[in-house]
Design a protein that fits this description.
Elements (H helix, E strand, L loop, with lengths): L2 H18 L13 H6 L14 H9 L13 H14 L15 H6 L5 H5 L31
Helix pairs in contact: 3-4
């Protein structure tokens, strides 16, 4: 084996090993901005920024006084910091329906086998309650092999 092909094989093996330990989609969880974890994670899971398109994050941050029926207003400096961090990390493409992660094509496809009754269980209560089934959701880990749906 040549030196170049040995390097190439070693690189591929490192990438495969890294993706085996990553969350869904073969991506490692994105380290969360402490301000984001503190401000947004105080009320719900601090969703990984890649779960919504940048345009959706922008609309959500521009309308925090009406955040899904709750006033989640923040001061301008914090909102700007969150915008600067979230918007560029959201994937390009169409925003989610109603800017809801749970209505995005990706979410619907990944959860198509979940029976509608499961969402209504008291331990789950909503598709937005990620940590009910994903025990490491607060760490950005949504690996389907670790899912535990409450009975």
């Amino acid at each position: 084996m040549s030196r170049h092909s040995s390097w190439w094989l070693a690189s591929v093996l490192v990438l495969l090993a890294a993706s085996a330990h990553a969350g869904d989609h073969g991506k490692a969880p994105v380290p969360l901005l402490p301000t984001y974890r503190q401000e947004c994670g105080a009320c719900h899971v601090a969703y990984p920024p890649g779960m919504l398109a940048g345009a959706s994050w922008k609309r959500l941050l521009d309308d925090l006084p009406h955040h899904f029926g709750t006033d989640a207003s923040l001061d301008a400096a914090v909102t700007r910091e969150l915008s600067d961090w979230l918007i560029p990390r959201g994937p390009a493409g169409a925003p989610a329906a109603q800017d809801r992660i749970t209505r995005s094509p990706w979410f619907v496809r990944k959860h198509d086998e979940v029976p509608s009754a499961a969402w209504k269980r008291s331990a789950v209560n909503s598709p937005a309650n990620c940590s009910a089934c994903h025990p490491q959701a607060d760490q950005g880990d949504f690996n389907e092999h670790r899912v535990r749906v409450p009975r």
